[in-house]
Amino acid sequence: MFEGRLRLFLVWLCAALFLLPVFLAAAQEKDGVGDLKLPGISSYATPKSEAPLALGGGGAITLSAQLTDKGTDITRGLVWRVFKPEPVNGKLPMVASAHGGSAVFQLEPGSYLVHASYGRAGATKRITVGKEAKRESLVLDAGGLKLDAVLSGGVRIPPKKLRFSIYEGTAEANGDRALIIPDVEPNSVVRLNAGIYHVVSTYGAVNAVIRSDIRVEAGKLTEATVEHHAAEITMKLVREAGGEAIADTSWSLLNESGDPIKETVGAFASMVLAEGDYTIIAKNRDRIYQKDFTVVAGQNQEIEVLATEAAAMDPEEGAD
What is the DSSP pairing of strand 78-83 with strand 276-284? Predict the structure, then answer.
């Protein structure tokens, strides 16, 4: 009976050891790291059938990270990834990963590349693992950036109509800047490595855009608020002052130089515009009407275009 139980236990143990690498690889694939670009790591491959080297002959390595060289350990929000330093088919094999704060890995003796991500901030370090337990720390040299925007006089902008994009501070030879994070919501904290960043604030979807360079300092939360000189404008085509808007109207908006900047169709044309002078052209049933108007920062307004014979344009002139 004892031999029968021993034989059954050995069969169960072999099956468990066979399935362990599959379960571990599946867990790391679920981590979703394959789509992430890591600073300092050009390309890497997630493990397919390799366990994270948690072998009895290895040494325990404890990893911690700090925002500055004299800062305290980050306790949450970190993503750790451990790579073999030798590329395979042009990619670095990832052998282990972890989430949270400090992490402990059991790795076979050898050299590894360790990458720590904290939001969009990150750092990479080469470590050496022996048979004895040891500790390694990474200094991220990172801080936080919190963005917001107001209108003239400090009037708040509806958050749904406001977005930020963060670019690298240094432009390339052709003048373009590498986009780091698009569509950042106002008052959300973005973790970045210390440095200067080019921030683009967009109010609405036409031309209310503010650009500024902002410095992020390590270990600090930088709060920046920009001021938009713009207003919300609603236009409608009416047969008389104060009348109902005429449906199925095509709208074309021109700036002060006469360049088209927005086209839309509907009874109303609502948009956010930067302060300045504009011309609106409304077309309805082969009749074209136009009106000049001025946008004053912070002063929302409704503009009526009269659909009268006196206001109508020559169709050929409108086509030009």
Answer: unpaired
Q: Which two tokens stand for residue 102?
A: 């400090």
On whether both 6 and 134 belong to a single domain, the answer is yes
Is pTM, for the whole model, over 0.85?
A: no
pLDDT digits (tens, 9 = 90+) for 310-319: 777 766 654 4
Q: What is the DSSP string of 144-212?
A: EEEEEEEEGGGPBPPGGGEEEEEEESS--TTS---EEEEEEPTT-EEEEESEEEEEEEEETTTTEEEEE
From the list 143, 140, 144, 141, the residue with the least C-alpha distance to 63 is 140
Instruction: Give the domain extent around 288.
Output: 230-319
Cα separation, 202 vs 166, whole angstroms: 11
Whether residues 168 and 113 share a domain: the answer is no
Whether 236 and 221 share a structural domain: no
Task: Measure the N-to-C terminal CA separation of the chain; round to a whole number of Å.
Answer: 99
Contact yes or no for 261/206 (Cβ under 8 A): yes
SS3 content of the chain, % helix, strand, coil (to 5): 15, 50, 35
Q: What is the pLDDT of residues 119-137, one digit of tens each?
A: 999 999 999 999 999 999 9
Q: What is the number of residues in the chain? A: 320
Closest by Cα among 148, 24, 42, 160 to 97: 24
